[in-house]
């Protein structure tokens, strides 16, 4: 069926505005449904465009979500940079504060956690090489921002170890997020047998503890005689 409301965007400004409308609509939908349930059909219906017209601005549903992921990461880094956690204390104490900051900030961003948990398995599976290149360059830039953030809190770590720390944090977040959001059948199983509830993942706790242990390990390696 023809989209009677569609008017082609003819200027760069109009095309940019149409892209922003699609992204804003997708972002709003992700506060209501998980990434897995956001379909191109549902998105096009919500934004009042035919699917073919949405695809004029993004090559696929996954490309839309990758753009949202980049925006979420950028906002997260801005939040981390503005956080006041104090620069005094031992390296371990500062590492523990950084771990708490990362864990608590991620918990407050469920859309970001949902997107990063789907990045490798879903979002990067239906995109062109051009989109993949642009996205990976953006991710690399964000990683550098996280490395600089780590250096503010833990100057004892060099860039290599700071990058290793942040890569570990993100990998743990990817693994822990879906585990902390079990389906109803699993929740019912926990309720039926409370002894099984120890298997339920506490996302914030896992991210915090893993970050603390990783920081301690990296600091110990730095202090070891070479």
Quick description:
By secondary structure, the protein is mostly helical.
Describe the 3D structure.
This protein is mainly α. The chain has helices at residues 12-29, 40-46, 51-54, 61-82, 91-107, 110-123, 129-153, 159-179, 184-192, 203-223. α1 packs across α4 and α6 packs across α8 (159-179). The longest helix has 25 residues, at 129-153.
List keywords for this structure.
226 residues, mainly alpha, Arc Repressor Mutant, subunit A, Tetracycline Repressor, domain 2, 70% helix, disordered N terminus
Topology overview:
Blueprint: H1 12-29, H2 40-46, H3 51-54, H4 61-82, H5 91-107, H6 110-123, H7 129-153, H8 159-179, H9 184-192, H10 203-223
Helix pairs in contact: 1-4, 4-6, 4-7, 5-10, 6-8, 7-8, 8-10
Classified in CATH, the superfamily of the largest domain is Tetracycline Repressor, domain 2
> SSE string, helix = H, strand = E?
HHHHHHHHHH
Quote the CATH topology of the largest domain. Tetracycline Repressor, domain 2
Q: Work out the number of β strands.
A: 0
What proportion of the residues is helical, as a percent range?
Answer: 55-70%
* Count of domain modules: 2
Strand content: under 5%
**Helix tally?**
10
Radius of gyration: 21 Å
Low-confidence stretches: 1-6
Largest sheet: none
Shape: globular
Query: In terms of structural class, how would the helical and strand content be classed?
Result: mainly alpha
CATH 2nd-level architecture of the largest domain: Orthogonal Bundle
The mean pLDDT is 90
CATH class of the largest domain equals: Mainly Alpha
End-to-end distance: 70 Å
């Amino acid at each position: 069926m023809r989209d009677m409301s569609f008017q082609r965007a003819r200027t760069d400004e109009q095309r940019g505005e149409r892209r922003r409308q699609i992204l804003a609509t997708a972002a709003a939908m992700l506060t209501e449904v998980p990434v897995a349930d956001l379909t191109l059909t549902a998105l096009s219906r919500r934004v009042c465009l035919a699917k073919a017209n949405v695809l004029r601005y993004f090559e696929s549903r996954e490309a839309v979500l990758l753009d949202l992921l980049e925006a979420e990461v950028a906002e997260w880094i801005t939040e981390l940079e503005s956080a006041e956690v104090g620069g005094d204390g031992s390296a371990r104490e500062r590492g523990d504060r950084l771990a708490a900051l990362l864990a608590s900030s991620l918990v407050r961003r469920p859309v970001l956690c949902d997107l990063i948990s789907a990045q490798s398995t879903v979002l990067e599976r239906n995109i062109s090489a051009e989109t993949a290149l642009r996205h990976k360059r953006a991710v690399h830039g964000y990683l550098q921002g996280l490395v600089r953030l780590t250096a503010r809190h833990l100057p004892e770590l060099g860039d290599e170890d700071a990058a290793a720390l942040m890569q570990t944090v993100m990998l743990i977040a990817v693994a822990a997020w879906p585990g902390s959001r079990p389906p109803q059948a699993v929740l019912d199983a926990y309720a039926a047998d409370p002894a099984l509830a120890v298997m339920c993942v506490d996302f914030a706790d896992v991210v915090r503890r893993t970050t603390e242990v990783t920081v301690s390990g990296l600091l110990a390696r730095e202090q070891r005689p070479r």
